[in-house]
């Protein structure tokens, strides 16, 4: 069975022997025009073993309640639009298979925490992007005329390979308890973004970025709870990256 | 690598960055480092303390006023207990400071909680230090029945 965004959960009667099951989706809904408080809403659907949480959301939006609002673009774990709190854990809806979740209980789907909810599962991502911007996520070099390539050995590239995988889905930042309680903290993602440049041999802005992360609300607020590493849909070792930034700060300054 | 002046990028910088510019210090770095170093030292000090007080010799049965008085007559244990007191108090207070910073959102409340915390820590440290260095198990002008048995008869 192919699941595409165009023709999603419209299965043929014999869906290639894919097992189907009943699943209850418990959605955290909030409509700013009519609700004062968010509310839970249950939908029981018949889904298949190949379906993801995103497919269930699509089925609800397209066949039951068109007002359900959520973000998604590529639907294949690349764009990072559909991070949400699924059964209490930050996951990408497009990478979480329904059959991997406990189906005897309702599957709860909430917006990611720590950012203001705009409607249903859509949150205001601006503070998250602002933190990313403040670490200067662009190549900083001296001179203004690159007359040849900036060469790099495979070993030098390997140094920051892990953090180049980030898709800015905000799953890590919004799983961080420090970020929940303190809106000033940069959050894991911004540190991952900085790590990607700090350890890049071609970049010359490491000192500036480290200075920014040495801030009161910078890396030192990290409590190494590993929520971010657990949440990352790209498998980035976020906590390790944060510790490496701490280490770089420590041995440059002490 | 020398700090370079970087031309502003095309996009406007985050509105949060100006307040980050003020007070660039390494305070949080040192606080973090202190937690790590004092944590390791406290492991040794606290478990050493527990071992000596509760396991060595007669163990817990030997623990009484005279035992503590005997320990504090020795400069080694005075320094040990002093280190333990200072490190534990500063380590614990710094941990609480972080929790206050995390969870107290109102500026006023946060300030008063921290004032309370620092006052309590300072009083405990000063009093504890005073006791360790001025401790006398047999004060000269105390009533005889209050003195422990090992004191020389007045």
UniProtKB/TrEMBL annotation, chain A:
GO terms for molecular function: 2 iron, 2 sulfur cluster binding; 3 iron, 4 sulfur cluster binding; 4 iron, 4 sulfur cluster binding; electron transfer activity; metal ion binding; succinate dehydrogenase (quinone) activity. InterPro entries: 2Fe-2S_ferredoxin-like_sf (IPR036010), 2Fe-2S_ferredoxin-type (IPR001041), 4Fe4S_Fe-S-bd (IPR017896), 4Fe4S_Fe_S_CS (IPR017900), Beta-grasp_dom_sf (IPR012675), Helical_ferredxn (IPR009051), SDH/FRD_Iron-Sulfur (IPR050573), Succ_DH/fum_Rdtase_Fe-S (IPR004489). The keyword Iron-sulfur applies. Pathway: Carbohydrate metabolism; tricarboxylic acid cycle. The keyword Cytoplasm does not apply. Its cofactor is [2Fe-2S] cluster; [3Fe-4S] cluster; [4Fe-4S] cluster. One of its GO terms (biological process) is tricarboxylic acid cycle. Residues 21-115 form the 2Fe-2S ferredoxin-type domain. Keywords: 2Fe-2S, 3Fe-4S, 4Fe-4S, Iron, Iron-sulfur, Metal-binding, Oxidoreductase, Tricarboxylic acid cycle. Binds 1 [2Fe-2S] cluster. Its EC number is 1.3.5.1. SUPFAM superfamilies: 2Fe-2S ferredoxin-like (SSF54292), alpha-helical ferredoxin (SSF46548). Residues 156-178 form the 4Fe-4S ferredoxin-type domain. It is an enzyme of class 1 (oxidoreductase). It catalyses: a quinone + succinate = fumarate + a quinol. Belongs to the succinate dehydrogenase/fumarate reductase iron-sulfur protein family. This is Succinate dehydrogenase iron-sulfur subunit. It comes from Phytoactinopolyspora halotolerans.
From TrEMBL, chain B:
The keyword Amino-acid biosynthesis does not apply. It is found in: Membrane. Its main location: membrane. Residues 1-22 are annotated as: Disordered. CDD domains: SQR_TypeA_SdhD_like. Keywords: Heme, Iron, Membrane, Metal-binding, Transmembrane, Transmembrane helix. One of its GO terms (cellular component) is membrane. The chain crosses the membrane at residues 29-56, 76-94, 115-135. This is Succinate dehydrogenase hydrophobic membrane anchor subunit.
